[in-house]
Design goal:
Layout: E1 13-15, H1 22-27, E2 35-39, E3 42-47, H2 50-73, H3 80-88
């Protein structure tokens, strides 16, 4: 399955007032198909499938790990407490 470009949500942008009929709105949310809600004409919130949210969280964690690994390769040394603080932030 081809993933959608995360910057291309045009067909899934709805005003926040659409929450009044939230059941209908939630039916539009599916994996790889978030719904962006606007407030005053600007993107404000994203409704996404839980599997996409988990992938998002995992990618943030992986990016933090890569940063720590890259800095370690360049000679920066970390204590375990430093690593935990970095991962928790």
């Amino acid at each position: 399955m081809m993933e959608k470009d995360p910057e291309n949500f045009e067909q899934n942008i709805k005003p926040i007032s659409e929450l009044r009929s939230y059941n209908k709105l939630l039916e539009e949310v599916s994996p790889q198909n978030p719904v962006i809600l606007t407030k005053n004409g600007y993107g404000k919130y994203a409704l996404m499938d839980i599997s996409d949210f988990k992938k998002f969280q995992e990618s943030i964690f992986a990016a933090k790990m890569m940063k720590v690994a890259d800095e370690a390769r360049r000679g920066k040394k970390y204590s375990w407490d430093d690593v935990k603080k970095e991962l928790e932030s």
